[in-house]
Write a sequence for this structure.
């Protein structure tokens, strides 16, 4: 398997009024092509920080970060990002929001008609053809998040980075989008790195679950390989003993070994 | 029908009360004309708003248009300079720090204090009045635009970074639409200031204009006309404000 994302000995410091704050230390992580990896940990442990580092939105204080063999020096179209709060531009329609990304990545090489086709396809992939010409405030939270996913996918990224993409959604919508994401990831052979605080979501979706210790100075505490057959079906998994073992292992890590003192 | 009645009743009562108090005050003070006398005078005045009998005796319509023209030119120039400047101040920290002391020093200066400078530089009354409008209405546009740029949610800038947008795309697709509501607030405040200041400026500079007209009628001791002028200034200001509120609604995307 080809190594797509490599994080080597990365440390992240933030300057605060009280001096430097160590958010992450000694992070070593390698992600292979087509792998689905989730980052899980208590809030404030720096899982979003790690995702932002891979996205190139922030640069590490020390250590090396590579994507497809090249150093990560900033954001790039080969890494598509889905934000926690969708981050659609409210003055653009769903179509225009996605088109903005398509135009940037393929605008130089392809015709206008082709760019439009790509945009339609990305929205069709997340099942939003009917809402193309609506603006973000006219659609539901789940639909907004799907436009965010379509925008990221439309760039045909090598890696899809998702920061708690379903965190703000109700349980039913979340389950529905998780199923869709699994289908899309499988169909497009995407490499996905996803931040979550939902144990069920992590076990359901991941090939590997990366568990972070509590901050400050958080690091990778344990990596769990989830060896469940794909395609996975959430109802069938409920009766699968292995599923419950994985679930228990993550819960054990989060609530036994990394229990937060009451915040 | 009932709804319209309910919506109109309170303001109508307010206006009637206002006219009633005015009539009462006018009765006890013989120099102040009452509502009826003022109304009669207004009807006569507005029956021929566009006459010209020499430079100092023109219809009320010409006076209003002359004032609006000065406000339009002064405000237009202030917008043409103030809005781009606000964008740059908001975008570049260095420029913000550089201009901050000048803006905080000049902004609180009373508008009419600028008039002598205008007279000195332009050596004519009309450009001096426009200059006063310009300098007093530029600040809200600079400041609100800059604040708008500063308040753009980090999320939108992250989108720009992740999509790797060009500076031009960032400006047209993110910066400009995000700042537009702030900009329109700045424009509203500026128009308000400009219209406030024009009356005072014209009183001092003379010529044709609603402010000069007030002063002229004071010299003629035509108090009805002064009261009419107050209403005219108020109504024109209200219309300008309403036009901009409609513009703001047109561009709000929520």
């Amino acid at each position: 398997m080809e190594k797509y994302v490599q994080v080597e000995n990365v440390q992240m410091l933030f300057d605060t009024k009280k001096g430097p704050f160590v958010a992450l230390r000694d992070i070593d992580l390698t992600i292979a092509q087509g792998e689905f990896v989730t980052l899980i940990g208590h809030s404030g442990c720096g899982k979003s920080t790690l995702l932002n580092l891979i996205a190139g939105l922030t640069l590490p204080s020390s250590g090396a970060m590579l994507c497809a063999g090249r150093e990560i020096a900033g954001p790039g179209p080969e890494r598509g990002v889905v934000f926690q709060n969708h981050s659609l531009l409210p003055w653009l329609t769903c179509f225009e929001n996605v088109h903005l990304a398509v135009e940037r990545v393929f605008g130089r090489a392809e015709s206008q008609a082709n760019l439009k086709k790509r945009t339609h396809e990305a929205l069709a992939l997340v099942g939003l053809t009917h809402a193309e010409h609506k603006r973000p405030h006219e659609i539901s939270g789940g639909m907004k998040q799907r436009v965010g996913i379509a925008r990221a996918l439309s760039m045909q990224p090598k890696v899809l980075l998702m920061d708690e993409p379903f965190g703000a959604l109700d349980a039913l919508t979340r389950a529905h989008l998780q199923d869709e994401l699994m289908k899309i990831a499988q169909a497009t052979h995407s490499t996905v790195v996803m931040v979550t605080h939902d144990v069920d979501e992590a076990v359901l979706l991941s090939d590997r679950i990366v568990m972070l210790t509590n901050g400050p100075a958080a690091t990778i505490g344990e990596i769990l390989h989830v060896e469940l057959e794909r395609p996975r079906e959430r109802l069938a998994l409920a009766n699968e003993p292995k599923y419950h073992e994985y679930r228990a292992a993550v819960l054990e890590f989060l609530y036994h070994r990394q229990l937060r003192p009451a915040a | 029908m009932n709804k319209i009645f309910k919506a109109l009743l309170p303001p109508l009562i307010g206006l009637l009360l206002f006219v009633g108090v005015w009539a009462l005050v006018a009765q006890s003070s013989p120099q102040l004309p009452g509502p009826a006398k003022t109304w009669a005078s207004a009807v006569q005045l507005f029956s021929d708003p566009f006459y010209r009998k020499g430079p100092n005796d023109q219809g009320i319509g010409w006076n209003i248009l002359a004032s609006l023209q000065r406000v339009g030119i002064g405000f237009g120039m202030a917008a043409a300079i103030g809005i781009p400047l606000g964008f740059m101040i908001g975008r570049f920290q260095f420029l913000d720090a550089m201009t901050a002391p000048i803006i905080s020093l000049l902004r609180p200066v009373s508008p009419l204090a600028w008039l002598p400078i205008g007279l000195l530089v332009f050596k004519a009354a009309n450009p001096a009045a426009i200059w006063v409008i310009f300098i007093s209405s530029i600040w809200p546009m600079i400041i609100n635009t800059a604040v708008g740029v500063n308040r753009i949610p980090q999320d939108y800038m992250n989108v720009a970074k992740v999509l790797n947008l060009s500076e031009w795309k960032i400006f047209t697709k993110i910066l400009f639409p995000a700042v537009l509501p702030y900009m329109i607030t700045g424009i509203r405040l500026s128009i308000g200031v400009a219209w406030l200041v024009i009356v005072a400026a014209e009183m001092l500079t003379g010529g044709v204009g609603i402010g000069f007209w007030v002063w002229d009628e004071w010299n003629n001791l035509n108090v009805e006309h002064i009261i009419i002028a107050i209403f005219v200034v108020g109504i024109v200001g209200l219309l300008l404000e309403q036009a901009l509120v409609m513009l703001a609604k047109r561009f709000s995307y929520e």
